[in-house]
Amino acid sequence: MKKPALLLSLVVMAQLSLAQSKFIITDGSKNYDAEITVQSCESDTCNGQGTVVLMDKKTKKKFQTLQSEDLYFYLNEKQKPSVNIIQLYNEQSPLIFDDFNFDGSEDIAVRNGNQSSYGGPSYDVYVYNVSKKQFVPSDELTALAYENLGMFQTDHKRKRLITFAKSGCCWHITTEYAVIPKKGLQKVYELEEDATGADEYMKVITRKLVNNKWVIKTKKYKTDDYYKE
């Protein structure tokens, strides 16, 4: 390699190295510390190719490395990323630690761009596999985090995963899923709120799975009264 080409290559490599940013998250998981490396950060926004190295809190050894094509996230006032925050239309952290399939083991969701509805946050979801002793991708759970308004919510008390979707300003739907062991997700509840009509009324439709049959109820409210509730 000629000297000018070598020097140019070294300069580019140095710039790439300087552009990368690294963060340590120690308060997101009871089992793991996480070392995040992301391609670039400017002001309070980070994005680009990212790597998440999970370190076992007990052994202090590297447990597993996960990749993201676009580890997109914001920095707080201390210039650090948040963790485990899921806010509809607002902050959603680069890493979400939780037991998504209610099997007693901690799982993880890693931010991967803004590919959910309306350009919202999207996540690759991994569940802990006891046999393999590592996190493995879950296509079903990842689909939930791509096809709706950002990351789903987890209701541990009722063992439900909850998603939100909308069309424009005036049609919203909330969907709940149960996790059936060795089978996957089963939709068990929907709340549809429809104010797209020309009148001043909101149509509210609830669908609930009872004994494998859908029980459907429809009510109408004055839109202003409904939102007051």
Please describe what this structure looks like:
With 229 residues, the chain is mainly β. The protein has two domains: 22-151, Lipocalin; 153-229. 14% of the residues lie in helices and 48% in strands. It is built from three helices and 15 strands. The strands form three sheets. It has a six-stranded antiparallel beta sheet with strand order 10-11-12-13-14-15. A hairpin with a 6-residue loop joins strand 13 (184-194) and strand 14. The longest helix is centred in the first third of the chain and has 17 residues, at 3-19. The radius of gyration is 22 Å and the shape is globular. Residues 10-18 have low confidence and may be disordered.
Secondary-structure blueprint of this entry?
Elements: H1 3-19, E1 21-25, E2 32-42, E3 45-56, E4 62-68, E5 73-74, E6 95-98, E7 107-111, E8 123-129, E9 134-137, H2 139-147, E10 153-155, E11 160-167, E12 171-180, E13 184-194, E14 201-210, E15 213-222, H3 223-228
Antiparallel strand pairs: 1-2, 2-3, 3-4, 3-5, 6-7, 7-8, 8-9, 10-11, 11-12, 12-13, 13-14, 14-15
